[in-house]
Design a protein that fits this description.
Layout (H helix, E strand, L loop, with lengths): L1 E2 L3 H13 L7 E3 L6 H15 L5 E3 L13 H4 L24 H11 L2 E5 L4 H9 L7 E7 L14 H5 L1 H9 L4 E4 L1 H4 L3 E2 L1 H10 L2 H14 L10 E2 L1 H10 L4 E10 L10 E4 L10 E7 L1 H13 L2
Parallel strand pairs: 1-2, 2-3, 4-5, 5-6, 6-11
Antiparallel strand pairs: 7-8, 9-10, 9-11
Helix pairs in contact: 1-11, 4-5, 5-7, 9-10
This protein binds beta-D-ribofuranose (BDR) and calcium ion.
InterPro entries: I/U_nuclsd_hydro_CS, Inosine/uridine_hydrolase_dom, IUNH, Ribo_hydro-like
GO molecular function, one term: hydrolase activity
Protein name: Nucleoside hydrolase
Length: 302
Amino acid sequence: MDCDTGFDDAVALLVIDRASSFELVGISTVVGNTTLERTTANTLAVVERFGIAAPVHAGAAKPLAQEPQTIEELLGGGALGTVGRSFPPPRRRTVDSRDAITALTAALERGPLTILATGPLTNPAIVLNLRPELAASVERFVFMGGSATSGNHTAAAEFNAFADPEALDVVLRAGIPVEMFGLDATRQVPIGPGEESALRRAGTPNAELWADHVGFYLRMLDRRTPRPMALHDPTAAASLAWPELFELADARVEVELHGSRSRGATLCEFRVPTLAQPNARVAVSVQGEEVMRRVLEVLRAS
Ligand code: BDR
Ligand code: CA
């Protein structure tokens, strides 16, 4: 798993570890929601708290062709905003001596590998640029990012796509089996005050910790009034745990690299193969309530 932890990346990590049948062989970090230093520290804090054994590898500190576009001021608390408690800083877990590029390359050499990416795609793009033949070892490339309609970071672009559009372009052109969980899918999985209360009622220290983070997430746009928010990264993770809750459609996905207002926008042509050759499967329909119910169970039992 490649991530820029972040509250929702943390939930995604837990879903993979607790609810999927995948063996989590490694976690790599990337600049995105916040600096590489913070996404790595946040990831270490999460794996330590929840006893996730996979090694953590630090990855790219800069996108391929632009400066970092971090949003920690929006996300609060070094991208792990909270209305109460936060993850204690890691005391035992440290970063692995191998960086993300080395570790991901080695894992692909052992291949085949499923990659779940919940941040900007800089790390996998670097590996695919350096070793294009390793594309053959990517069994599935599942990522949260993009949108077939409107954006969230800009009117046109979703954040992960906007934060490194050149990297997304590399992945889309690599000839690997890409599965895109964009905003059209994640907006079908809202988390709201009901989930915050359910976590508080669970009464365990971990459930309360999650409630404090969910509480911040729901008040991110308006400090006084909690409002339902899309649960982004866990939706992509949930597709690996519970594929029966998702419907995907073949599409040709291309990312805008040059538009002065539309940089990072993902254009999804669903009329394939008539008008274009497909290069991805895009999540179009999600049983959102059921995904949310199962994710909540994972958090409650954590
Ligand atoms: C994506 O952007 C980040 O802020 C979230 O962690 C998620 O990966 C949603 O656009
Ligand atoms: Ca993320």
